[in-house]
Amino acid sequence: MKKVIKVDNLPTKFPVFPTMTMYLFLDKVNAAGWVWGAVGFFFVMVWFFALKRWASEEQVDIFNKDKRTAQKLVDELAKLPTLMRKQFDELKKEKE
């Protein structure tokens, strides 16, 4: 299975703009019916393979390692008030 960057990091792109552009172009030049059919068949195939590829791709989070590191940092920062309190109590005992 092909690995791709997670959608949150890089969105999947479908051929929306080329499809709309070709439709407007064919409408503007008053293309013949067989041209509409040939171009339509081509874009149906393009969309079919794009959807097939999209459905079979595996999403990979490229920042997964950084999230684990960030979570570890958050956990350590959550312990910080307790550690500071212990150090404060030790300093207080030393002064007494």
Task: Provide structural commentary.
This protein has helices spanning about 15-30, 35-55, 65-95; strands at about 5, 60. The chain folds into 2 domains: about 1-60; about 65-95. The relative contact order is 0.14. A two-stranded parallel ribbon has the order 1-2. By secondary structure, it is mainly alpha-helical. It is built from 3 helices and 2 strands; from the N terminus they run E-H-H-E-H.
Helices, by number, come to: 3
Number of strands: 2
Radius of gyration: 29 Å
Mean pLDDT: 82
Note the run of SSEs as H and E.
EHHEH
Share in helix: over 70%
What is the general shape? Answer: rod-shaped
- Separation, N- and C-terminal Cα atoms: 67 Å
The amount of beta strand, in percent, is 5-15%
Number of domains: 2
Structural class estimated from helices and strands: mainly alpha
Strand order of the largest sheet: 1-2
Low-confidence stretches: none
Sheet with the most strands, sense and barrel status: 2 strands, parallel
Summarize the entry for a quick read.
The protein is mainly alpha-helical. It is built from 3 helices and 2 strands; from the N terminus they run E-H-H-E-H.
